[in-house]
Amino acid sequence: MKRSFITLLSAAMLLIAAAGCNTNDSVKEAQKVNEVKADSATANTNMGKIEEKGMDYDSKFMTKAASGGMLEVELGKQVAARAVTPQAKEFAKKMVSDHTKANAELMALAAKKNITLPTALGNDHQKVLKDVAEKKGVKMDQEYMKEMLKDHEEDVKEFTDASIKASDPDIKAFAAKTLPVLKMHLDMVTKMRPAVDAAK
């Protein structure tokens, strides 16, 4: 089991590395695969569309969370290496550490629930990565902190919703468990951003 997970993780990393060549939105592609799985799983049950609707919400939450988590780690690594302000560097390192752990938990949960996750950033997250990475010096730090504030506001909302609305109890529990960490990140970036914005 552990060996197959490592193989799966290695394959995912290779696909992420090749993502630059991919023009399709990997989040939407993963969601399509999950829709097909949900259709075949509910075709023979009396629950039908009700059950499918719940699975659909859960898989969409998971696919978006996977892309978002990959963005936090990839962008965090780049900013940690290039940031000029101590706040942006510290925040970026925290993102790499916390989101690497959350991503591993998300992948394990998705494997258990037979949910396909994207293997590369979705188009929206690719754009954020590009927008931040193209900038240099203080401008990059400021763009990064601006995007992280917006991103964590969205994350807190989505994970709060999933902790209430997810139909699968394990997915609901994952969202609830991850939520305090995301709130802490939002608090951190809110407090640190003014100093980065004031930097010259």
TrEMBL record:
Keyword Signal: yes
Keyword rRNA-binding attached: no
One Pfam family from the record: DUF4142
Cleaved signal peptide residues: 1-19
Domain DUF4142: 58-191
PROSITE patterns the UniProt entry points to: PROKAR_LIPOPROTEIN
Top-rank lineage group of the source organism: Bacteria
Keywords: Signal
InterPro entries: DUF4142, Ferritin-like
PANTHER family cross-referenced by the UniProt entry: BLR2558 PROTEIN
Name under which the protein is recorded: DUF4142 domain-containing protein
Organism listed in the record: Hymenobacter segetis
